[in-house]
Design brief:
The chain has 499 residues and is mainly alpha-helical. The chain is 51% helix and 6% strand. The chain is elongated, with a radius of gyration of 26 Å.
């Protein structure tokens, strides 16, 4: 009996099904990394899609190579190339000496050439692939999968799933039964550099924009700073009103900290507080908030199914395709379509459908997150589209283009502020800010600190601007808002820039 079972197991592992096992491993591995950030419907759809492509490749290679073992091996190699292209690309670009090998025009032809060579080597080989090869690949995939599931089940990576909770706070909040509960608007201009950044790096002044805001009774913090220079970390810290601890390195390549930040925004303390006060949440951002999902997606802040595919060749290729098309095709129609497509989210947000009026006790919260003046710098100061190919962030013209786009942003923001003040009759709280400053500086490293030079201003209908000092940082901003609008007594944290 035992011998029969052993024989059947050997037979099972000797079959060339590893090309299917590889897809199963990829899906489960990435799902566990992004547990509860990917909808089950998206998970099933992506699995069905990848499995379909795997079977198509297998059928094609079986017809060409005539042996199912060869076809399965070639399919597995192709799947690895397609699904882990981004991982290979990042491994090259993270090292200065070999970064050129990570360029799409170098890496993609190189990998395709390797696949072609492997294909002809398999084609020349007489007979089928040895069963031991399939046994090794199948067993390895099973072991990797078991390890992944055990590690997840035993909580080896528990910190990834741990959200910031009220118990983590070093202060207490009480709520306010006698406050008016005014409508609150938070408008984020992504990568908008404040007065210090504009003056010290671009040698330009923000005074005209600030004067317009002051004329509308805003308090502008002249030396505002962000605590982090990446959006997801800055907004996680902002909404939770504290520094991020046990998040690992705060950079775009750290998957652990990125995912934990998404979770912290999705269950953030500020919006949870507003919910206890009876507020309705209106979310016009790429982030999920408590009780309200994101309203749009973008390539800079991947979420849901994109988290499963953002390292694949398809995703990486689609990121560089627009500029490639315009450079090679040079067609004005293509360029115009790409420009409008890239700016559509911002235009939709700037034209946000607001009610005709919002009362001062309506308990409405609005969060708008604009990806402007963030790259690509699509528009000049007069709202005219730039040539799409020069919006590439490595363009030598980017400094000038950024400032022109920033000035265009100023105009559109003032129009939006006027609309909000009109429908709220000046009774709504408006927080106008940026998550961080301009990051694409190509001058000496002494300018690096200016990446933290963000923008922050606030309009308070009760004219209470106590606590909004001249050098406030993002982590403290909502603490002051709660103190002023809801009579809380939250102490401010020591300001710090986290590298």
């Amino acid at each position: 009996m035992a011998g029969t079972i052993t024989h059947r197991v050997q037979q099972f592992f000797s079959q060339p099904w590893h090309f299917i096992g590889f897809i199963v491993f990829y899906i489960i591995h990435n799902w566990l990394l992004n547990f509860d950030l990917v909808a089950s419907s998206s998970l099933i759809a992506i699995f069905a899609l990848l499995l379909s492509f795997g079977l198509i490749f297998y059928t094609l290679f079986k017809r060409l190579l005539r042996y199912k073992g060869k076809a399965a091996l070639m399919t597995t190699l192709t799947e690895f190339t397609l699904l882990y292209f981004g991982t290979l690309q990042d491994s090259f670009t993270n090292s200065a000496s070999i970064a050129f090998m990570g360029e799409m025009q170098v890496l993609l032809p190189g990998l395709l050439m390797i696949l072609v060579v492997l294909y002809f080597l398999l084609k020349k080989r007489v007979g089928n692939i040895k069963e031991s090869v399939h046994q090794y690949l199948n067993a390895a995939l099973c072991l990797f999968l078991v390890f992944e599931l055990m590690a997840f089940g035993l909580g080896f990576d528990k910190a990834r799933l741990t959200d910031i909770t009220p118990d983590d706070l070093t202060f207490s909040v009480h709520g306010c039964d006698t406050c008016k509960k005014p409508p609150i608007f938070i408008i984020v201009m992504d990568e908008y550099t404040g007065a210090d950044g504009q003056q010290n790096y671009f040698n330009t002044s923000s005074q005209d924009f600030e004067n317009e805001l002051k004329r509308r009774n805003f308090r502008v913090v002249p030396h505002s700073r962000s605590n982090y220079i990446f959006t997801v970390f800055s907004m996680a810290s902002f909404f939770n009103m504290q520094y991020l601890t046990d998040f690992g390195e705060h950079n775009a390549e750290n998957t652990f900290s990125y995912q934990r930040s998404l979770r912290s925004i999705r269950k953030n303390l500020f919006v949870e507080y507003l919910l206890t006060q009876g507020y309705t949440i209106n979310n016009f951002s790429a982030f999920d908030l408590p009780s309200k999902a994101a309203s749009y997606r973008n390539s800079f802040l991947p979420k849901d199914w994109v988290l499963l595919l953002n390292e694949t060749l398809y995703y990486r290729f689609m990121m560089v395709l627009p500029n490639f098309l315009v450079r090679k095709v040079g067609n004005a129609t293509v360029q115009g379509w790409l420009n409008k497509r890239a700016s559509s989210d911002n235009e939709n947000l700037l034209g946000i459908p607001l009610p005709a009026s919002i009362s001062d006790t309506s308990k409405q919260f609005y969060y708008l997150h604009l990806m402007m003046p963030h790259a690509p710098y699509l528009l000049n100061e007069n709202g005219q589209y730039n040539a799409f190919e020069i919006t590439d962030e490595r363009s030598p013209q980017k400094d000038s283009m950024y400032i022109h786009y920033l000035k265009y942003t100023n105009k559109r923001i003032l129009d939006l502020v006027d609309r909000i003040q009109q429908i709220t009759n000046g009774k709504g709280v408006i927080v106008l800010m940026s998550d961080h400053g301009f990051r694409e500086m190509h001058q000496p490293r002494k300018y690096t600190e200016l990446s933290y030079a963000n923008f922050f201003s606030v309009y308070s209908p009760n004219n209470d601007y106590r606590g909004f000092t001249d050098s406030l940082t993002v982590v403290n901003e909502l603490r002051v808002v709660l103190n002023n609008q809801f009579h809380e007594q939250i102490p401010l944290l020591k300001d710090s820039m986290v590298h």
